[in-house]
Task: structure prediction
Amino acid sequence: MLERVATSRVKIGIFGIGLQAYWDQFPGLKDRLEGYQRDVEQRLRALGANIISAGLVDTAPRRARRASNLPARTSISSSATSAPTPHRRRSFRPCKASTVRCSC
Result:
């Protein structure tokens, strides 16, 4: 007979991304994105994850404030989290790599 081994719950920091300029242009968009984020958080909690939510990030100052609330083992540079520059943009295409880790 197998014995259960006590494990610690995985801790996940999560935030949604939007652009504040769109809220007036598209009524209900912000609420819809926040709803999607709540759904993702609930699904992860149902799997046993400990969720730390930073909410919806829609401006650069808010990004900095919310990111500082998330625990991190390493620092994330602002260039890694900012929008891609035009020369780095790629058109959408299905990923052919593993669904676990994709470097495309």
Observations:
- Helices lie at 29-46, 60-69, 78-81.
- The two ends are 44 Å apart (CA to CA).
- Strands lie at 11-17, 50-57.
